[in-house]
Request: fold
Amino acid sequence: MAKTIIVGAGINGLLLGALLVREGDEVLVFEKSRRTGGRAFLLEKDGFVVDYGIHLTRFGPQSALAAILKSVGHEVRFRKLGVSYVHDGGKMKIFPTSPGGIFKSELFSIGEKLRILRLLVAIKRGKYDDLMDVSLGEWMREHGVDGGIRTYFELVSASVMVCPFVEKASAGELFRNLRKVLVTGHSAEYPVGGWEPIHRALVDIISAHGSIVTGTKVESLVFSGNRAGGVKAGGRIHRADRVVINAPVQQAVSLIPAKLLAPGYAALCKQLVPTSGVFVDAAIDSTVSPLDGLIYTTKPAAYGCITSNLSPGLAPEGKQLLTMFYPTSREDIRNRTIAAKRKKELWAAVLRCLPGIEKHLLWKRECALDMIDGVQVNVDQTGDKRPGVRVPGLEGVFLVGDSVSAPGAGGDVGNESVLAAFRAITGKSL
Ligand SMILES: Cc1cc2nc3c(=O)[nH]c(=O)nc-3n(C[C@H](O)[C@H](O)[C@H](O)COP(=O)(O)OP(=O)(O)OC[C@H]3O[C@@H](n4cnc5c(N)ncnc54)[C@H](O)[C@@H]3O)c2cc1C
Reply:
C-alpha cells in the first residue's frame, strides 16, 4: 500500500485524496486552517447554508467534477439553471443560454440575432478553438463585433472566464468552453442538495482509509536527492511515498527547496495572476423572486443567482439566499478604497435588478478577494504556459489545483487537474 501526503484540504486535494483512497492508498491530508474546503468552504448561519460566493460547475454532469465523484461512489445530480436575465439599459432582458433564447432576447437587434447564431454555429464546429493566444477584444475587433453581441461576449467572458477584461481573456479558451456547452447541452449547473453533502462524502471517504489533520501547516517538503519522501509539519517529519501539493502553485513552490527547482520555475509559478473580485451573499426574509437562472448586470459586469431557488434546502422555508459576484482586477482588490467602491457598485447593481430587496434583508456578507480562481485564463496564462502536475526534475511530488496546467477556466481547471494528477500518479484515466 502506497502512502500519499496531500498538502491542503481544498476541494481538489479532497477529490484527489478520495480517488487515491479508492486505489488502495493510505492518504494523509494536512490542512493549515481549522476547516476543510479551502476556497469552496461553506458557512452555516441562521439556517442558511452559504457557499463562498457563487459556486456553479461548468458542464454539470459532463464535468470533471461529476466524473470524479461518480468514480469515488458519490454520484451527484446537477440542476440546470432556468432562464437567465441581464439588467441592461434599465430593463431585465433574457440572457440567452440556448439558440431559442437568442430569438426571445431583447439584448440583440434582428440582424444581431442572425449573426450571433452564425457565430455560435461556427464556434460549435470548432472554427475558433485554436485562438488560444488571441484576446477576445482582438477577435471582436477583427470580426467587427459590437452592440448586443459585444455585450453578450463581455458577460460570457466575465462569467465563464471570470475575466471581464476582453483585451486579456483568451478567445480560444472561451470558445472551447462555449463549444462544450453547445455540444453537451450542459452549461453552468448546481449540484442538487448543494455542496455540503459533497464535502462530507469526500471527508468520510478519506477518513475511512487515512486522515485529515486540520490546523497543521506544512512547512516544507523533504527530499532524498530529487525524490520527495515526506513533509515537515507540526515540528516533525512525516514520511510518504509521494507528496501532492494542493496549495495554489503561487504558494506551493515555496514548499520545495529552491536549489532543487529548475531555473525560472519558481518565477513562473509565483508570477501567475489569479482572478479577483467582490461578492455579496444576502439572506432574505421572504420569497422576493422566483428567478432560477443567472442574473447578470452590465454596469458593472456582474452576475449571480438566488441559490436557494436552485437548492431549496439552502435557506429556511419561506426565505431566500442570493449571491452576486463582480469580477475585477487584483489591483482593485489590493486597494482598500477601490475594493470598498466595488462592493458598493455591486450592491447598487443588486438593488437595480431586485428592487425592494433591501427591506427584506436579514443580513449580508460582502467580501473582496484577490484570489477567486488560482489563475486568470488570459492570453499570457493559457494551459501551456502554466506549470503541469509534475515538477520538472523531481520525483514523487505532484501539484493539483486551479492554477495548474489543465483544460478549462475557473474552478474546472482545478477539477481537471485532479484527473491529470491521478493519471500521472497511477497511469490510469477515469
Ligand atoms: C467567491 C468565489 C466564488 C467562486 N465561484 C466559482 C464557481 O462558480 N465555479 C467554479 O468552478 N469555481 C468557483 N470558484 C473557484 C473555486 O472555489 C476554486 O477553484 C476551488 O475552490 C479551488 O480549490 P483548490 O483545492 O484548488 O484550492 P484551495 O481551495 O485554495 O485549497 C488549497 C488548500 O490548501 C491549504 N494550504 C495552503 N498551504 C498550505 C500548507 N502549507 N499546509 C497545509 N495546508 C495548506 C489552504 O488552506 C487550502 O485549504 C470560486 C471561488 C471563490 C473564492
